[in-house]
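Anyone able to model this chain together with nicotinamide-adenine-dinucleotide?
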Amino acid sequence: MGRVIAMRVDDTQKIGVAGAGTMGSGIAQIFARKGYEVVVTDIDEEHLQRSAELVDIFNSSLIEEGIMLPEEAEEVRGLISYSTDNQVFSDADLIIEAIIEKMEIKQDFWREIEAIARRDAFFATNTSGLSINGICEKVENKGRFIGMHFWNPPHIIPLVELTKADETSDETVEELKKLMTIIDKEAVVVHKDAPGFIGNRLQFAVFREALHIVDEGIATFEDVDKAMKYGPGFRYPIIGPLQTADLGGLDTFYYISDYLFEELSDMKEPPVMLQKMMNAGRLGVKSRKGFWDYSGGKHEQAIKTRDKMLFEMLKHIHPEQKTGR
Ligand SMILES: NC(=O)c1ccc[n+]([C@@H]2O[C@H](COP(=O)([O-])OP(=O)(O)OC[C@H]3O[C@@H](n4cnc5c(N)ncnc54)[C@H](O)[C@@H]3O)[C@@H](O)[C@H]2O)c1
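re: yes, here you go
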């Protein structure tokens, strides 16, 4: 267990965010919305300017959805400041790193930050999948260090995965769990530094089987997406996969597992089909063709529809979010 640290979230006032990209900008917006002072740093001045624009875009979509008042957006803007100098983190209570997904760069970043930051500040990395133990390798006080995985788009998706490194203290986990509640996020604790944490392990288990079904000609890709949306996926926002089994009957789920598990994909590599699609430039929305067709403006519609429905769901999950703190 790492050394105990003194900081408590009740005293938290200032949040440092490193990396002013997609995730860092969203994370800054989330904390500022709850009244925290936020300092955002980046190595690139232009990215800092773009980040401020991104925060405005996130705010306007929340206003459009009736989840935020226009005057709140002004406050959010006023609470976030930007710098290319990491010294601004010297009095931060929590520093969240959302910089490029490269192990060595993250390790060097944290070594530099430990020399700047307060001795009792919490340190969190938003890595998608790199080892948390690896990222904090050069940090001396590892008790304060944690994985804090926000999902994209961070201002909408409620989940945050808090991943313990070997030496992360229980106090760090407990305090940051409390903080996640304050910012209206739903925290889960990942007890082992396991690749994919929880969310991506589940997501990619489904992805592997979905590819397998299409590859084997069991069903079309359209029907795979439809089956998930109107079947298991329809239930998932309400009850997770284990509670689904509870409600279905664990004996029944056992009997089904007994004959079905051996039929399911245990592919260790992505199927050739997926590689062929990539080689043909079918990358999804960004190239206007993936499994589905996104030409002629359909890509924008797909993103808009997704976000609209996600906001609707968010209003059900967190009804108190509808305008105001
Ligand atoms: N994009 C996603 O869907 C997503 C979701 C969850 C987690 N993440 C993780 O969040 C982190 C950031 O991802 P992103 O999508 O926001 O990336 P991004 O490319 O949009 O932004 C990264 C920013 O970090 C800056 N940067 C690079 N090196 C830096 C350094 N040494 N110090 C300060 N700033 C530096 C870059 O200039 C850039 O502005 C990554 O670890 C990524 O794996 C991404």
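The chain has two domains: 9-190, 199-232+267-321.
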